[in-house]
């Protein structure tokens, strides 16, 4: 039944209109508050979803998760001063430094507690916790290791290797900066990983391979001579944390471009990349800057190329790494037909 407005007095009509207006205003306010609550909850839900995405993107894939040896490498990161030294050094887990002769073998027994160096034996205390040793190789020097599991490692000039004295965990892991050749002892129950900076990892599925990961280089490369390896790289960035993986077969090289964050694989003769472990440097159809980059590390000198010199020409040849620099310069002149001027005081070689 509806009210009859005609029989109401003026005061009652005014009162009724006021109550109706108040009711309408209240209802509008209620609806407005409801909409605000819905918007608030929606915004909160969107924020939670975004936060979840951020967390999930920041989480690294299992293959490239930060391991304890990577954490150790970060915590003991040096400023590169080892490159200024003129001696190979073995830094023990207690921070004691032992000077090593050039190309001397550092050999561990199966327990990792006894080290044979320079015909002398070094004894380390046994520990339940993982102990890490470090080998620092300056420019112009090389080193050779036999790890506790029987894996052989050759370290090139300007390189650093961090490794456990014994492999007592589920995985065998080492951390490399520079260039190393690995001949890994087979153990299917304990996969072997070579970790490097920039979330780069090499999982060993075979045996003999080379990894070059100098900090100053634009690329990180892995070359496989024998066996099988898996290379992985975790992309950087908020929305680009996916992992690139590729498997190499003998004769393949995987090159990671640090800037582009991609990996390219090529097939070529990889034998020259392993020549330095035998005491000579072989290069085949290489551009001059690449040849000079390696000689810079071998002989701790700096090359200056004049603008008139073509940097696109390729060259082939070989050097004995124990040759003196004068002989190397003469070999370069004969190979390239260019003029090399060596300043002994600054150790700079100008190419005209």
Automatic annotation (TrEMBL):
Pfam family, one: FecR_C
Keywords: Membrane, Transmembrane, Transmembrane helix
Every FecR protein domain range: 137-230
InterPro entries with a match to the protein in the record: FecR (IPR006860), FecR_C (IPR032508), Ferrdict_sens_TM (IPR012373)
Domain Protein FecR C-terminal residues, every copy: 281-351
Keyword Transmembrane helix: yes
One GO MF term attached to the UniProt entry: sigma factor antagonist activity
Superkingdom of the organism of origin: Bacteria
Regions that span the bilayer: 38-57
Stored PANTHER family: PERIPLASMIC SIGNAL SENSOR AND SIGMA FACTOR ACTIVATOR FECR-RELATED, PROTEIN FECR
Protein name according to UniProt: Iron dicitrate transport regulator FecR
């Amino acid at each position: 039944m509806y009210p009859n407005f005609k029989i109401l007095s003026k005061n009652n009509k005014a009162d009724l209109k006021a109550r109706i207006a108040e009711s309408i205003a209240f209802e509008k306010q209620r609806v407005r508050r409801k909409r605000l609550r819905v918007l608030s909850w929606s915004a909160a839900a969107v924020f939670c979803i975004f936060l979840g995405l951020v967390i999930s993107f920041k989480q690294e894939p299992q293959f490239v998760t930060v391991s304890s040896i990577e954490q150790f490498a970060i915590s003991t990161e040096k400023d590169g001063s080892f490159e200024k030294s003129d001696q190979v050094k073995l830094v023990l887990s207690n921070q004691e430094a032992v000077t090593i002769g050039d190309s001397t073998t550092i050999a561990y027994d199966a327990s990792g507690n006894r080290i044979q160096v320079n015909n002398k034996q070094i004894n380390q205390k046994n520990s339940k916790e993982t102990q890490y040793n470090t080998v620092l190789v300056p420019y112009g020097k090389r080193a050779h290791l036999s790890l506790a599991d029987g894996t052989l490692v050759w370290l090139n000039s300007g390189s650093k290797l961090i490794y456990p004295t014994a492999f007592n965990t589920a995985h065998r892991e080492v951390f490399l900066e520079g260039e190393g050749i690995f001949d890994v002892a087979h153990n299917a129950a304990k996969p072997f990983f070579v970790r490097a900076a920039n979330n780069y990892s090499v999982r060993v599925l075979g045996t003999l391979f080379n990894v070059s990961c100098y900090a100053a280089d634009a690329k990180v490369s892995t070359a496989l001579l024998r066996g099988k390896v898996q290379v992985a790289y975790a992309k950087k960035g908020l929305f680009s944390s996916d992992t690139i993986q590729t498997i190499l077969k003998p004769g393949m090289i995987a090159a990671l471009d640090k800037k582009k964050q991609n990996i390219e694989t090529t097939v070529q003769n990889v034998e020259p990349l392993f020549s330095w472990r035998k005491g000579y440097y072989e290069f085949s159809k290489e551009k001059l800057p690449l040849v000079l980059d390696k000689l810079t590390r071998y002989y701790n000198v700096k090359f200056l190329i004049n603008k008139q010199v073509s940097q696109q020409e390729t060259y082939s040849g070989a050097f004995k790494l124990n040759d003196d620099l004068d002989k190397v310069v003469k070999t370069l002149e004969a190979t390239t037909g260019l003029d090399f001027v060596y300043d002994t005081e600054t150790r700079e070689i100008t190419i005209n």
